Amino acid sequence: MRRRFRAQCLQGGMCNMDTAVKFPTTPKAIRARALELSARMSVEKAFQAIVRNCLDQIEANETGVIKYHDVESLHQMRVGLRRLRSALGMFDEVLSLPVALRQELDWLVSQLGPARDWDVLAGSTLPRITNTLDADAPLVRVQHAAADKAMALHAAAGAAIASERYQNLIGNLERWFDERGWRAMQLPADKVKLKMRIGDFARDILEKDQQRLLKRGRKLKGADPETRHRVRIAAKKTRYAAEFFASLYPRKTVRPYVKALASLQDELGLMNDASVADGLLRQLSEGDEELKDGTGFLRGYLASHSRQGDGKLRKLWKRFVPLRTPG
Predict the structure, then answer these.
(1) Are 197 and 39 in contact (CB under 8 A)?
(2) What is the distance, to the nearest Å, from the Cα of residue 109 to the centroid of all Cα atoms in its chain?
(3) The whole model's pTM is what?
(4) Are the CB atoms for 271 and 125 separated by under 8 Å?
(5) 41 neighbors 49 (Cβ within 8 angstroms)
(6) CATH assignment of 28-196, given 1.40.20.10, 1.10.357.10, 2.40.50.320, 3.40.1550.10?
(7) Cross-strand pairs, 197
(8) Which pLDDT tens digit goes with each residue over 199-235?
């Protein structure tokens, strides 16, 4: 019943105003709520709290994506999806999501990713360049073409979120979650692990993620885009784990750690945006001869400034201090 009512609201059906959420004219993108875990929680209880937190963030941004094609709502839905996939990966050794649901999550990623990439190009990367230059006609044409592409992909993303396929995905995820479907697929040893307290499990996850990041980070000097991308992914996973388990550690210890990870991830993200932008600009030029001059200039500009960012990235890496987890 809950899913049927919700689907009708999302698809424009009549909702009981006593129970339906009233959305403002301008949508408000929903970030993840602060997550509070207790050291006395079992691994299973902590997993439930984390997944519920991620699902809430995803579902809370549906209306902004469907009805308003809102840039920030789509971004926050995508963040919630990335957090969910990261959480599922963290707990994969003791419980597993059915393969069919994993494949549907991959489909959802493919529906949101392109719109976000073009949003960043049209709304962030290009304005950052043109604000420092004279916006001549070739660059303006590229900006307009990128904005048109972003708008079209937002419409496609909204249609995907309003679709029956998405509704089935969320409904099946909620059912698997509510019925604790992972228990049916577990070995006896896994069931024992789920009853353990979360502290030891969290420490092992943080140490493993941090070691992966440190290993990849040693290759940052003079790194190519693919190597930087691997470091960015490792930093993102480590940051998500640190945020999930932050309430288990002293605030004065974990906050600077998460802040340092965020700064590192942001800088790596900017460099990755430039790499992604190069591919998107190439797509634009292939589809329209009038855009070749503008896209060619912008690709050269991005390549030049990308190399200049290496120094700042190395400084951020040197400032990164690994978290010491009590053993």
Answers:
(1) yes
(2) 9
(3) 0.89
(4) no
(5) yes
(6) 1.40.20.10
(7) 42
(8) 999 999 999 999 999 999 999 888 888 999 999 999 9
